[in-house]
Specification:
There is one protein chain. Helices cover 39% and strands 33% of the residues. By secondary structure, the chain is of the alpha+beta class. It is elongated and about 65 Å long. The protein is built from two helices and three strands.
């Protein structure tokens, strides 16, 4: 029983480390930025992404700038130190 618990803890630690490293790769960074650009309908710049599994899955985008529509000007539309997205459980 103790071996099973230890195995689960080790698996969670490895998954957390793997997810954290994965979102820092260039390919995943570009993929996530492309999805944000489609969602906002504007150019988006993100310095880095962080992800975690526990206590609940969450993705953080750090130092985010959403560009302005060029027909309105050349300043940014939105600037944030961090944007977070996570999963919510369903309310009963």
């Amino acid at each position: 029983m103790v071996e099973t618990s230890t195995g689960i803890v080790v698996l969670v630690i490895v998954l957390q480390a793997g997810v954290s490293l994965l979102v820092r790769t260039h390919r995943v960074h570009a993929y996530l930025v492309a999805h944000l650009e489609r969602a906002f309908g504007r150019q988006v710049e993100v310095v880095s992404f962080d992800a975690r599994i526990l206590p609940r899955p969450q993705l953080d985008a750090n130092e985010v700038t959403v560009g302005e529509d060029s027909s309105f000007g050349h300043e940014y539309f939105l600037r944030a130190e961090r944007l977070s997205a996570g999963l919510r459980g369903q309310a009963c």
